[in-house]
Design brief:
Blueprint: H1 5-19, H2 32-41, H3 44-50, H4 62-66, H5 72-81, H6 90-109, E1 129-130, H7 131-134, H8 141-153, H9 158-171, H10 177-186, H11 192-203, H12 215-222, H13 245-248, E2 250-251, E3 273-276, E4 292-297, H14 299-304, H15 309-319, E5 325-329, H16 332-338, E6 344-347, E7 358-360, H17 375-386
Parallel strand pairs: 3-4, 3-6, 4-5, 6-7
Antiparallel strand pairs: 1-2
Helix pairs in contact: 3-6, 6-11, 6-17, 9-11, 10-11
Length: about 400
């Protein structure tokens, strides 16, 4: 049988505290109550008009959605319960839908999202990443500051993500994948579908044209007044732009995830087992049922999609919202073989296809499934559900 709740919590907290690396996670609180308070305080109406500005009314909910603590469906339902009319917050709902859209593409296309999805990116001068970007020494003040803050907080504004991606892929002419893996590594809201497919969108590999931002655009949305940079030019001049000196030197990244040592877990074989992972930390999942709750951390997953110590720390802290959760470091097959785990439940995700047991559907915002070649064809179907 399970230990008492207080015993499990104390044991888990001691274990997790031993793994934390004193990273500053104060930008993103991890208790469910604090997350729900943040959700209650967002302004989805104002978001529609100022979201692109650095100080815009963004929700800062993406880390919690990405880790599965809350879902896009839950966020929308809470907003509608507060009395917001969909027509007045459509831009915010649309932004949530982008996350589901990227996930649907990953679900449909699988590992092919790791390659140029629609078009071959070009020109490509290297398959690395500019040292100037990694070191926050690009010479573009707003971008350099955003990267420095990114390393501290694990978060970067969506508009800045596009600026950085454009700089890396379209100005420095790096293939999108390595810079995308660098950003994913440091993001608290690390979601490979959203990250990889957005980088491809900027680089023209998942869109009809490349995305560029010139200095005027950056100054406008970041409140800077920088001039005479290599980006201080009209958009039609970008096709003739040579790689700037500050971006020419490249580095090959060696990224690894610091996972804890394997530890003993206790399984009650009379109970079913719910498998949690990096993408599912939902504390409401089967909350009132007696089950084994295992946070499965597969080394093979983190070898393919490495994340930083800060991201792991954030995940561990979020996992404490799940009662009686235990941590297992190892592959799914190891868990089922060595601990004779049967009667398994898990939530659908593209990286869970090797799991065996009962797969439960994720909490999608709308019942719109399958691959759509463009977001707006996907959104058209979502709108029919939204206004039904």
């Amino acid at each position: 049988m399970f230990q008492a709740k207080s015993d499990i919590r104390e044991q888990d907290q001691q274990e997790i505290n031993g793994m934390l690396l004193k990273n500053d996670l104060t930008w993103f609180p991890t208790s469910l109550d604090e997350v729900l308070q943040r959700l209650d305080q967002i302004d989805p109406v104002k978001y529609g008009s100022d979201r692109n500005y650095l100080n815009g009314s963004v929700s800062y909910l993406s880390p919690y959605i990405s880790r599965g603590l809350i879902s896009t469906q839950f966020v929308l339902s809470q907003l509608l319960k507060k009395g917001y009319e969909p027509v007045n917050i459509e831009k915010f709902i649309q932004e949530l839908a982008w996350r589901d859209y990227w996930q649907q593409i990953w679900k449909a296309k699988g590992d092919t999202i790791n390659t140029d999805l629609k078009n071959k990116q070009g020109p490509v001068a290297n398959h690395y990443v500019s040292k100037g970007i990694i070191d926050a020494q690009t010479g573009i003040e707003a971008i350099d500051k955003a990267i420095r803050d990114f390393y501290k907080s694990g978060y970067v504004h969506n508009h800045l993500r596009m600026y950085i991606a454009s700089l890396a892929c379209n100005v420095a002419q790096s293939h999108w994948k390595v810079p995308a893996k660098w950003m994913y590594y440091h993001l608290l809201d690390a979601d490979w579908a959203s990250n990889a497919l957005s980088w491809q969108w900027v680089a023209g590999a998942n869109s009809h044209k490349k995305y560029y931002a010139n200095q005027e655009n950056i100054n406008k949305y970041c409140f800077t007044n920088q001039k005479n940079t290599f980006l201080d030019l009209p958009y039609e001049a970008f096709s003739q732009l040579s790689i700037p000196e500050t971006l020419k030197e490249t580095v090959d990244l060696s990224l690894s995830t610091p996972l804890p040592e394997k530890n003993k877990i206790s399984i009650d074989h009379n109970l079913p087992t719910c498998i949690y992972n990096f993408y599912n930390l939902d504390p409401a999942w089967k909350k009132d049922e007696s089950v084994n709750r295992i946070l499965l951390l597969e080394p093979s997953h983190f070898k393919e999609y490495p994340v930083s110590a800060k991201s792991i720390d954030f995940m561990f802290n979020l996992s404490l919202n799940v009662d009686h959760i235990q941590i297992f470091v190892g592959e799914f097959k190891e868990l089922t073989t060595y601990h004779h785990v049967k009667n398994i439940y898990f939530k659908e995700h593209p990286l869970n296809k090797h799991y065996q047991g009962v797969e439960e559907q994720r909490d999608w915002m709308f019942p719109v499934q399958g691959y759509y070649p463009s977001f707006f064809s996907f959104w058209k179907q979502c709108k029919k559900q939204l206004y039904a």
